[in-house]
Amino acid sequence: MDGGGARLNEAARDFAAREVEPHAAFWERERTFPKEALRAAGAAGLAEVRLPGHLLVEACEVFEELAAADYAFTFALACHAGAAGVLARHGRDPEPVLRGDEVGAFCLTEPGAGTDAAAITTAGRSDGDGWRVDGVKAWITNGVAASVFQLYAQTEVGSGHRGIACFDVRGPQPGLAAGPPYGLTAGHAMGLSDIHFENCEARLLIPPGDGFKAALRSIDSARAIVAAMCCGMLGRGLEIAVAHVKQRRAFGRPLAEFQALQWALAEAATDLEAARGLTYTAAAAIDAGRDATVAAAQAKKFAPAAAQRHLATCIQAMGAEGLRDHHPLARHLACTKMAQIQDGTNEAQSLVIARRLLA
Ligand SMILES: Cc1cc2nc3c(=O)[nH]c(=O)nc-3n(C[C@H](O)[C@H](O)[C@H](O)COP(=O)(O)OP(=O)(O)OC[C@H]3O[C@@H](n4cnc5c(N)ncnc54)[C@H](O)[C@@H]3O)c2cc1C
Predict the structure, then answer these.
(1) Which of 52, 300, 344, 351 is deepest in the core (most CB within 10 A)?
(2) C-alpha to C-alpha distance for 211 and 161, rounded to whole angstroms
(3) How many whole angstroms from 150 Cα to the centroid of ligand 1?
(4) Is 229 in the pocket of ligand 1 (CB under 6 A)?
(5) List of long-range contacts for 24-29, beta carbons under 8 Å, 24+ apart
(6) Which of 107, 109, 216 to mutate to test the pocket of ligand 1 (most atoms within 8 A of CB)?
(7) For residue 151, what pLDDT is reported?
(8) 30 φ/ψ angles, rounded to the nearest 5 degrees
(9) Rounded to the nearest whole angstrom, what is the distance from the C-alpha of residue 76 to the centroid of ligand 1?
């Protein structure tokens, strides 16, 4: 890692301990979107991690560190930082997003199109001077507070992925409205909502023909980031469980002396290292400019499942104490289910892997 990566990593660790960990249970309980914490993350330099010039490996390390404290906040920051990166790569000023004055969002999914993203129906049409967009986007992270939208829309009915372009849409403006925040099993700090666009002004960011390819390329990186975040959650869960079993006693000895628990925790530690291996292999391949679609799909398939299985193991090893919300374990466990759906479901990862395997 270069000096910049080490600096950001340290900033992430410090930020997680000061600004995330102490508040995350409250954000979840009160269903709060932590906009001020996003701004503070910007001030700490953490939203810069997706700008051109930063390696994806560095970004994964930062998001792994932050997700150990809270997955939902970290996913919100990852989408926000991703929006700043896209603006910078397309010659637009990312500063207001980096500072947290504006919140960024990635808008692909619709009420009628998720996995089958080429079936989106939000329409983009040229009105001579510029572009206008109409449609509804669903499951938009940061939707409750966003004003910078990277919106994917169809520019030619019936042309499938070839007609999809990416637009830069800014709020507030007439016709643009967020729906109410979603009520969820967990992850309220992601600020999920629908976004309605009715005859909204839009600027073309990525033209038809390249828009869908760009979405797929960005999704490879997003999958590595989600995998890294799952490593962060599991890593923290394991640390907490190990500390607990060393001090808690039953039948006259520390829990750590029971072989059943030792084996369960050893399996968790092994799967954590396997998840990290897949994750950082995928991220390094993307950094090197190699085709990493399968590597990213494998990391995204493995790491959330490993985290889900073994966060449950960690809670089990702690008994009832593992369920208390002053520990992040139950919150992390609920978020592993979200990690198995966002940025492509498990089945979508299997499709990618099997298609290549059987080609
Ligand atoms: C917490 C969270 C945050 C999100 N944030 C964003 C965001 O910021 N921006 C955004 O655009 N989207 C976002 N999404 C949406 C996410 O990308 C979609 O949920 C995801 O792509 C899956 O789409 P779907 O939920 O509509 O499921 P569907 O596509 O309806 O799929 C339902 C089920 O069918 C399976 N399935 C579908 N097709 C196949 C097939 N060919 N073969 C086998 N099985 C199949 C799926 O794997 C799944 O199990 C978010 C989702 C979540 C949960």
Answers:
(1) 300
(2) 8
(3) 18
(4) no
(5) 24/69, 24/70, 24/72, 24/73, 24/189, 24/328, 24/331, 25/325, 25/326, 25/328, 25/331, 27/70, 27/72, 27/73, 27/188, 27/189, 28/72, 28/186, 28/187, 28/188, 28/189, 28/325, 28/331, 29/325
(6) 109
(7) 98
(8) -95, 5
(9) 17
Count CA atoms closer than 13 A to 196's CA, side-chain side: 7
Residue 55, Cα to own-chain centre: how many angstroms?
17
Question: CATH number of 3-99: 1.10.540.10, 1.10.10.10, 3.30.420.140, 1.10.1040.10?
Answer: 1.10.540.10
Cis previous bond, 172, omega within 30: yes
pLDDT value at residue 6: 84
- pTM check: above 0.90: yes
Q: Whose alpha carbon is nearest atom 37 of ligand 1?
A: 115
- For domain 104-209, the CATH architecture is Beta Barrel (2.40)
User: For residue 15, what are its two tokens?
Assistant: 């930020």
The answer to whether 156 and 121 have CB atoms below 8 angstroms apart is no
- Predicted confidence at residue 1, as pLDDT, reads 43
Residue 105 is predicted with a pLDDT of 98
In the chain, which segments carry CATH 2.40.110.10? 104-209
pLDDT reported for residue 3: 56
Residue whose tokens read 């329409």: 123
Q: Are 167 and 151 in contact (CB under 8 A)?
A: yes
Does the Cβ of 341 fall within 6 Å of ligand 1?
A: yes
Q: Which residues on adjacent β-strands are paired with residue 126?
A: 131
Protein residue with least CA distance to atom 2, ligand 1: 342
Q: Specify the DSSP element, H or E, that contains 59.
A: helix 56-67
Q: What is the mean pLDDT of each run of 10 residues along the chain (359 residues)?
A: 75 98 97 97 97 97 98 98 97 97 98 97 95 98 98 96 97 98 97 98 96 91 98 98 98 98 98 99 98 98 98 98 97 98 98 98
CB atoms within 10 A of CB 161: 17
| Topology given in CATH for the domain delimited by 213-357 | Butyryl-CoA Dehydrogenase, subunit A; domain 3 (1.20.140)
Helix, coil or strand: residue 152: strand
